[in-house]
Every structure is written in structure tokens, then in C-alpha cells.
Amino acid sequence: MGSADNHHIAPGFRFDPSAGGRETLPGSWAAHWKATPERPALRFADGTALNYGELEAASRRAAGRLHSAGLGAGERVLFSAASSAQGVVAHVACLRLGLVVIPANTAYRQAEVAHVVGDARPSAAIVDEPQRGEWIRAAADIPVLTPDLPLDEAPAPILDQSAAESPALIGYTSGTTGRPKGAVLSHGNLLSSVEALRLAWRWSPDDRLVLALPLFHMHGLGVGLHGTLHAGASAMILPRFDPDEVLDAAAAFDATLFFGVPTLYHRLMQSDRVSELARLRLCVSGSAPLPAELHARFEAQTGQRIIERYGMTETVMLVSNPVEGDRRPGTVGLPLPGVEMRLAGEPPEIEVRGPNVFAGYLDRPDANAEAFREDGFFRTGDLGHLDEAGYLCIAGRARELLISGGYNVYPREVEEALGEHPEIVESAVVGTPSEEWGDAVTAYLVPRPGAQPTVAEVRHFLGERLAPYKHPRTVYCVEALPRNALGKVQKHRLENGRILDEEAD
Ligand code: MLC
Ligand code: AMP
Fold first, then answer.
1. Domain 402-499, second-level architecture
2. Cys-Cys link to 333, which of 55, 256, 321, 381 (CB 3.0-4.6 A)?
């Protein structure tokens, strides 16, 4: 599929995933550091502002300190911190030094942190909260640093030397089953995706992004931060999402871009200031389905036709509605430059190939054999079809996955944790459609005789085991779960606290 044409880039244009032979993100960033050191790069809520020259110098100093602590190319560093200037500088320093960054959600509880540490075996960790530091130390005897990297000053070695194939990032994500797996993304994968976005979204050095998404997942990090620095543009980075803070930042910063998950757009629509977003050049949504109805209401209030796009941890970005041309609500658009896409099987699953697609999960030959076809296409686990104009519509998921507020929740993981509750015999976790969250996590519980666990008790019990966004918002107690003749739980029969009749099959 000729994907550069999809985005009306230029007649006969050929996509170059190395963005002019630079091959790695730091290689691309270095070009801006050199050419336009005075240009604003990043601003933070605490007032810190860094231009490109300052970002180069600060990340060089940070890389020197990491190097002095004995960290070198190929070693892994777990990173789990709220967005801050020091954290971003540390992240940039890690990539410049050739370290492999493992972002981890700051909401993870001890068992989730211990799993990532045990699986990825990092050589050090950067965290902004003592409790998380203790959990990491309990799982591995490694240095745990704060984002300001309190280490000895030392000259940095030669930086920005990684090869395109070298690993840059390991993103933890669950597939069909089991504990989260580490998707290993190379420098080349990260670079080709932001180069595709630069072209498709006409991302220019004059763009100013308001970024209120966390930097420990692909949307905030691999698209928002990496994309900004690759385009030589600038971003105002906020440590959390608050509609007023976003709108204030958009005004103060004269923003041109905003990226959000659908929950952010839903919440912005609750603000009577939402029309202020009319000033922007582009509003982009992704990570979860954007209801066509929300798209329409947002356009009515702001005049903005949101660009919906589709991606995932393993592939960075895949498909987007075009900037020039028809933006179709309810679709995620057309393959980005460099991305080959096909629909295979019944029901049709989305399969992709391209320079942005990761090479495999860390130490998981079993999962890799299942995830990749012989010709190199990656099975996304998402189901799709094309509309009459050839735009991709995501029709559901082949794997069991809920998306709440843009965060993935795996029912099986929640059911396993609920299974440890002394009063619960078994459980089934499903999503209830929610305007705010997309899928609201809902649990049907079969309690032990005489027991009647409440949602508060269940959430309290899960508190030590799972990040709060994975907790059920509603629980229902039922006598038994509906099963088919083979004994498989029929989740589609669970609705509004009731078990629907068999005919609903
Ligand atoms: C927070 N809570 C959530 C939640 N986020 N519950 C369900 N789903 C979520 N996503 C919980 C809190 O723990 C808290 O629980 C309660 O909700 C109220 O918190 P809040 O203050 O309203 O939440 P807030 O901090 O405002 O967070 C909401 C949010 C956040 C929408 C801003 O979830 C968020 O930043 N989402 C974006 C996620 C993201 O970046 N995804 C991209 C993944 S990359 P309690 O128990 O304390 O009351 C990817 C690839 C791609 O998917 O294509 O982009
Ligand atoms: P993650 O593993 O956290 O990177 O989440 C990736 C998943 O998010 C994809 O496999 C899709 O199921 C989902 N996703 C991302 N963008 C969209 C979108 N625009 N519409 C529907 N689902 C999406």
C-alpha cells in the first residue's frame, strides 16, 4: 500500500525512515541542537524553559553523570517519574548514551514494578518517589536515582553513537495472555515513526505542542516528546491533565498542537472555555476509540476536526487521518508513510510491517512466534475493516483488552488478582461502555457462601496488587458465571449486573 500518497506529501515522494541518513533519534536531535541552538525547545509547568542549545548541554552533563556511575551503551534503565524538566533531560541523556530506557507507569504497585524489574533486569532506575525506589531495591540490587541524577560530575564520553538497530526503549505491554512483555524498540523504529508523523502532520519547527499526557507511555513519549524534538519544534509539558491548565498553557504558549486520549477531549468538553482551542492548528486523538459523536460535538464547539490516529507500543504510530483531505470520524485513517498494512483472517485482523515495527518481545520466542507472520507482518490483535474510501475502522479486538482513559487493562490480570481474595470464588472482568473512560472496568464476582464483597472492599484489596486504573469501578455479585457447553465463560452475557439469556448469543 503506497502510504506516502495517503497523506498528500508530494507526488512521487519516497519515504526515508532514516530522515536523511541520521538513523537515530539523538542523531536527528543533534542536527537541531547544532543548527538552531537558540530556538525554544521545552517548557515546563514550574517555569523551566530550555532552548535547543541548553537541552544539548544539560543532557550532555546528565550523560556524563550516568557514565561516571558506570552505565554504558546497551545497559537498561527503568524510568518511572512524573513529567519534569530533570526527568526529560535524564531521558534524553539515556538515549544519547545508548542506554535502553524502560518506561514504567507511576501508578504501578509493588508486584507490577517487581515484574518489570525481574523481566527486564535494568542496571539502574530513575524514579521520583521513595516508595517506588524501595520496591525496586526489594526486587534488584541496583542504584536507584532521582531524576536530577545526584551523581559525580564527569565529562561525557562521545555521545549519539548508537546504530539504527540498537535497542532504545522497552515498552511493557500485555498481549493475549500472561504477564506484561517487553516490546524492544530500536532507535530506527522510534525515528521512522516520528519522521512519518512529521511529514503526515506537517509538524514544523514553528509548532508548539501542549503535552499533558504522561511520558511513560508511547503517546506522550514516542509521539509527543520525541516528535517535538525531531521536528525541531517546541512543547509545553504539563505534569498532569487539567482542562484549565491545558487551556491556560495553550493561551500563554500560543499553542498550535494538542494531543489527547478521548477521555481528555471528553473532559475538555465539560469546560465552558473549550472554544479557546479554536486557535490551534491541529488536535489529535488516539490510544482508544474516539466516539464519532464526541468528534462532532468538539467540532461544533471549537471548529476543530480532530485527527484520529492509531498506534501501539510495539509499533509506535501506524495509521492516521490526513491533515489535508477528508478526516473521517469513526475511522483512524490511512497508513502513515512507511507503514504497510493488511487485513488477514476472519474476522479480519490488522497486520502491519514497516521500519517502525519492533523486532520482538524481550526473551519471548514463544510470543514472537505467535505475533509475527513468516513474511514479517506483525499481528496487532486489533480487528478492522476499510470503509468505502479505504479508511481503516477498528472493529474490536481479537485479544481480551479493555481501554480505560487511554490505559490498557487486561481482564485476565484483574481476574487473577481478584482470585487471591479469600471471599471470591471466581470472577469475570468486562468493560461497561462509559462516555468518560471508554471501557469502565466492571467485575462480576461469585462470592463464597455468605460473603458479599463491596466495590470499596475489592478496591482496597487490589490496592497493593494493581495500579488503581485497573480496579473495577463497579462490582456485581452473581451466583455463578454464565458458561457454554465447553465450560468457557460467556462474557457477552454479562450486562448491567445481570446475566442475559442464552438467546442473546
Ligand atoms: C486515573 N484513574 C483512572 C484512570 N486514570 N481510572 C481508570 N482509567 C484511567 N485511565 C483513577 C485514579 O487512579 C483515581 O482513582 C480516579 O481515577 C480519579 O482520578 P482522576 O484525578 O480523575 O484521574 P486523572 O489523574 O485525571 O487521570 C485521568 C487521565 C489519565 C485520563 C488524565 O488516565 C491519563 O493521563 N490517561 C492517558 C493515558 C495515556 O497516555 N495513554 C497512552 C498509552 S500509549 P482513585 O482510586 O484514586 O479514586 C498507547 C498507544 C497509542 O495507547 O496509540 O497511543
Ligand atoms: P498500547 O499497547 O498501550 O500501546 O495500546 C495499543 C492499543 O490501543 C491498540 O492495539 C489499539 O487496540 C488501541 N488504540 C490505539 N489507538 C486507537 C484508536 N485511535 N482507536 C481505537 N483503538 C486504538
1. 2-Layer Sandwich (3.30)
2. 321
